[in-house]
Amino acid sequence: MTDRGPLPSTWIPRDVYEGPAQPEPGVLKLDGNEGNPPPRRLLEDLATVDLSELRDYPDARPLESEIADRLGVDPARVVVTAGADEALDRVFRAYLAPGRRLVLPVPAFEMMYRYAAVVGGEILPVPWTDAFPTDDVVAALDDSVSLVVMISPNNPTGRTATASDLERVAEAASKVDSGATFGAMVLLDHAYVEYSDQDLTDVAQNFDNVVTVRTFSKAWGLAGCRVGYAVASPEVATLLRNVGSPFPVAGLSLAAVRTQMSTGDAALAEHVKAVRVGRGRLTETLNRLGIETHPAQGNFVLGDFDTRSDFVFNGLNALGVRVRRFPHRPEIENALRITVPDQQEPLERLLGSLETCLAPEALLFDLDGVIADVEESYRRCVLETADTFGVQVTREELARMVLAGDANNDWVLTHRILRDRGVDVSLEDVTRAYQEVYLGTSTSAGLRESERLLVARDVLSGFADRLPLAIVTGRPREEAEWFLEKEGLTDLFQAAVCMEDGPLKPDPAPVRTAAALLGVGRTWMIGDTPDDIRAAASAGAVPIGIVAPGPDPAASAVALREAGAATVLTAIDDLMELLP
What are phi and psi for residue 434, nearest 5 degrees? Predict the structure, then answer.
């Protein structure tokens, strides 16, 4: 048996459970494992129900009878609850207590840990890394164990237990002298069973000490209704009824589920079929990109992203794709769980976003603050130009303005500063004064002569050996080309998008233009300002921040992260470690 130690009964969750994110316009929500939404006619049907459904206390017995008919069991065995979560909670409160222990194959559904903590039970974790660890679970059983959990398909891994696994565990658990009538209780969490090849519901009915929990939240697409149910022996079902509220589910939710059950079988079968196809494609894509996956049997795939997990999670987030991670669970701290879309368009978007994060076709670089040190040129030009019109601006104030965004044109930025300080001067006059400071005059050298490389040529050459490179800058083309030629970098970049080529960042147009010039679709964009990050994300490029020289590097890093950077580098050399 694998060596393990118990999780102490004093383990109390002090953090609030963070479920999946709320839907956002344009965002692909793949972190909650919800199924396909039901047809709109379901809402129309609910509009015709009798008002008594709102006035009277709800009666779950008709739904329990319909569920029982489907399963071929006595209605006395079925207990409808407020989602599968409440069914799990009832089982824990009925069969776990201080001084009693729970055998839990891990990793496991997050709420299992919390329900155990609430009742003061002790968890005996059993690693589940391949086939269900039946031998280890059976070996862990002693008279202190009152509950065993089998999550199949497992959330978050997608692994499944077999009928033989359930039979062996249930038989062994029934012999435990736990003080309960049927020995130790076995909880079979079947929330994702509709997607699986292993439906153990019938097998579970052969054992008085097995409770099966199922839900309408996943494959049926009714997570918002909060309807689940437990199937158990009549004696256990009676106990479960008595440890919960007598009216746990709203009448309209009961009506919605009954309507969906009577009309939705064909849609359910089509949804499950599409998810299985998408699951295969997602698994194949991840494996091809070097990501190890678990043998999924749910409507999700868990991938082991190793050291790249944070980067990919944040990169997908920047591209509008929400997935789930578990940094607080050591067994899967580098894994991401991805819900499988059952529609073609969102599936292709997901696969394309993963490709972009893990297999870019080109690298796009902002120039100023990334390749060129402009603290003593462009940044100082803003300060000196403002000073010529009688306005004093500190470097710290300027840095805050840049980090606030919409600051990719120094002429416009300087003009805005002067206007806000009450100085009425035209943009043309500001631009003229600025350029004299930057370019110089016949009698004085311009500040641009102070510009130096922030990254060695051989580092950039190393990037260019692996992928096409492009510059995306708000500089005028002449000034961008001047710097690249001065530093001997022109040959490394196959394209340059400059001020004259269209809108400036944070508009996504220059990023898209650079990708088009390179003839690629998947890019990473490296920039030092929130404008760079927002432009990249809006253009479908993975945004990577880098902290440029300045008065407050820490504030810069925070601003880049808040703008949505997949990662924030302190040195451009570190980019090499992210590349596949």
Answer: -60, -45
**Quick check: 403 and 529 in contact, CB under 8 A?**
yes
Between the alpha carbon of residue 182 and those of residues 105, 136, 147, 235, the distances in Å are: 21, 21, 11, 10
Joined together, the tokens standing for residue 349 give 């978007």
Cβ-based neighbour number of residue 287 at 10 Å: 12
Closest by CA to 461, choosing from 498, 497, 493, is 493
Say whether 527 sits in a helix, a strand or coil.
Answer: strand
State how far the alpha carbon of 430 is from the alpha carbons of 408, 439, 469, in Å: 16, 14, 33
Q: Alpha helix (H) ranges present in 392-505? A: 395-404, 410-420, 427-439, 457-466, 477-486
HSE, CB side, 13 Å, CA atoms: give it for residue 126. Answer: 22
Rounded Cα–Cα distance for residues 508 and 511 (Å) = 6
Both 70 and 218 in one domain: the answer is yes
Sign of CA dihedral 448, 450, 453, 457: positive
Percent of the chain with pLDDT over 70: 96
Judged against a pLDDT cut of 80, whether residue 118 lies above it is answered with yes
Q: Residue 143 and residue 131: Cα distance in Å, rounded?
A: 26
| 332 and 460 housed in the same domain | no
Print the domain residue range for 219. 62-263
Residue 129: inside a domain, yes or no? yes
Is 259 in the same domain as 333?
A: no
d(CA 214, CA 88): 10
Number of domains into which the chain is organized: 4
**44 C-beta neighbours (distance < 10 Å), count:** 9
Whether residues 336 and 187 fall in one domain = no
Same domain, 498 and 383: no
Per DSSP bridges, beta strands 145-151 and 210-215 are unpaired
Query: What would you report as the CA-atom Rg of the chain, rounded to the nearest whole angstrom?
Result: 30
CA distances in angstroms from 358 to 8, 13, 209, 287, 351, listed in the order given = 39, 34, 47, 11, 11
pLDDT tens for 376-393 read 998 999 999 999 999 999
- Nearest CA among 455, 28, 21, 81 for reference residue 282: 28
d(CA 392, CA 117): 59
CB 187 within 8 A of CB 211: yes
The burial of 195, by beta-carbon neighbours within 10 Å (0-12 exposed, 13-18 middle, 19 or more buried), is given as buried
Flag whether pLDDT at 464 surpasses 90.
yes
Q: Pick from 391, 423, 450: which residue ends a domain?
A: 450
If pLDDT is split at 50, 70 and 90, which confidence band does 5 have? Answer: low
- Cross-strand bridge partners of residue 127: 106
For residue 190, give the CATH number of its domain. Answer: 3.40.640.10
